[in-house]
Amino acid sequence: MCLNFLDLESNFSKKVNEWEEILAYYDDYVDDDEVWAIARESKQVPILANIYQAILLSKIQYHFCEDLGSEEVKFWTYINSIDTHLHINEIDILTFDNYKEALNRAKKNLN
User: Fold this and answer.
1) What pLDDT shows up at residue 47?
2) What are the DSSP E strand ranges found in the chain?
């Protein structure tokens, strides 16, 4: 029997490659040790893909705020395996270009 929660690729959002590209822009990535540190603390059987995506989106949010120089940003995330989403200031982040668009708009709104 194959346990689906261990099949990471089938549990990732289709957008995960684009989100990884955003992190790569900042020379950052999600380390396996980060995922395992959270998984070990879980009281229930962890879904590793959800842990990975949660860390990934958290790091994107961190870099966005750092790049912007402000934490006054409206983030909305929903993490549930393939149904995982990231919105920044109401822009659905599907691609690296969407991310740059959200960052440019946020910078304009600060001025």
Assistant:
1) 87
2) 75-78, 85-88, 91-92
Segment holding 8, helix H or strand E: helix 8-11
* pTM of the model as a whole: 0.90
- C-alpha closest to that of 23 among 105, 96, 93, 77: 96
Is 25 domain-assigned?
yes
Sign of CA dihedral 22, 24, 28, 32: positive
Look at residue 45 and tell me if it is in a domain.
yes
| Per-residue model confidence (pLDDT) at position 6 | 56
Would 68 be classed as within a structural domain? yes
Counted domains in the chain: 1
